[in-house]
Design a protein that fits this description.
Helix content is 59%, strand content 12%. Its EC number is 5.2.1.8. It catalyses: [protein]-peptidylproline (omega=180) = [protein]-peptidylproline (omega=0).
């Protein structure tokens, strides 16, 4: 208490003498000054720390209330890194929104501000319908710590970005030839149901060890018994190397491993297969394969996916081009 009292007296003395302490770093920046700090530049426009903090508040409150994190965690070094990462993502979204706004003005996509306001109202009305009532929507916003003012800003951004996106992707098409080509090159993945295989493996550190294990298996030793003895995978002690049923091209497994397994016949044992985890000896005990669907049965879904992929590429390339032209700058030291 005495230290605080002395500090107050000292500051009063400084001001009574008309001495400026700002140049000496003795006065911290006020919340108002921090809020005015620029965190990003997009062309001739800026995003301030205050605008970023306002947009980030709902996320911050959710992190504080989260059992996984909480307010105390956010004060730790790891928590502060998490906050910076999340705020940087939020800022990136705000930068993209600025780019959309600038592009909408350049293209004259809205006749006036009223058209944007009408879009905001339509979006809000749709959400009221989805939630059943205005009261329910407001309840959800309150739970998410989103003020009505912030919500209108979010909806405004969506209205503008949707209009711009629709404009830049409107001419995207995919030819029937491209659809046919995709089908011909990917028939194996277009079965009536996903093809599966039952796979076992033994994981080893060196190729030499893997070759020795394969020879033991070829000599008739039991796969599960050898796996429990030699595999460096901890689970092998319980599973005997049995991975159960996995899909062809299963994204949850190393793709070099999956491709090697797919190439095997039922009962066949692989040569050593190198992946990021080490050397594997693989055995496929069962394969379940289904008929390939006819072109006419899948052509619409293929076309839909190809159009979507091309639209996303146009969208992504456009954003990259706009960022470069706008000379986007981010002032990372001002984010938190």
């Amino acid at each position: 208490m005495n230290r605080l009292k002395n500090k107050v007296i000292s500051m009063a003395l400084i001001f009574s003498l008309g001495i400026s302490a700002s140049g000496c770093g003795l006065i911290e920046k006020s919340p108002e000054a921090i809020a005015k700090q620029r965190v990003a530049k997009i062309g001739d426009e800026y995003i301030t720390r205050g605008e970023l903090d306002e947009m980030f508040t709902p996320m911050l409150e959710q992190l504080k209330a989260s059992p996984q994190y909480g307010a105390d965690y956010l004060e730790s070094a790891e928590g502060k890194e998490l906050l910076k990462s999340q705020k940087t993502e939020t800022l990136d979204g705000m930068i993209e929104q600025k780019l959309f706004e600038q592009k909408s003005k350049e293209l004259n996509l809205f006749k006036d501000e009223n058209e944007i306001s009408e879009g905001i109202k339509t979006s809000r009305d749709n959400l009221v319908t989805a939630y059943g009532s205005e009261e329910e929507l407001n309840k959800k916003l309150e739970e998410a710590k989103i003020s009505n003012e912030l919500f209108d800003k979010i909806l405004r951004g969506q209205v503008i970005s949707q209009k711009v996106t629709e404009h830049i992707i409107k001419d995207v098409t995919v030819s029937d030839e491209a659809v046919q080509k995709y089908y011909d090159e990917n028939k194996a993945s277009m079965t009536e149901q996903p093809n599966t295989m039952n796979v076992s493996h033994i994981l080893l550190k060196t190729e030499e060890d893997a070759k020795a294990v394969k020879q033991r298996l070829l000599n008739g030793e039991d796969f599960a018994t050898v796996a429990k003895e030699k595999s460096t995978e901890e689970a092998a002690q319980q599973t005997g190397g049995d991975l159960g049923e996995i899909m062809y091209n299963d994204p949850n497994y190393d793709q070099d491993f999956v491709k090697a397994a797919m190439a095997l016949k039922e009962g066949e044992i692989s040569d050593p297969v190198l992946t990021q985890f080490g050397y594997h000896i693989i055995k496929v005990t069962k394969k379940t394969e289904y008929p390939i669907q006819e072109f006419d049965a899948v052509k619409d879904s293929i076309k839909y996916q190809l159009v979507y992929d091309e639209q996303y590429k146009v969208y992504s390339d456009a954003l990259s081009e706009w960022r470069e032209k706008a000379g986007v700058e981010v002032y990372e030291d001002k984010i938190v």
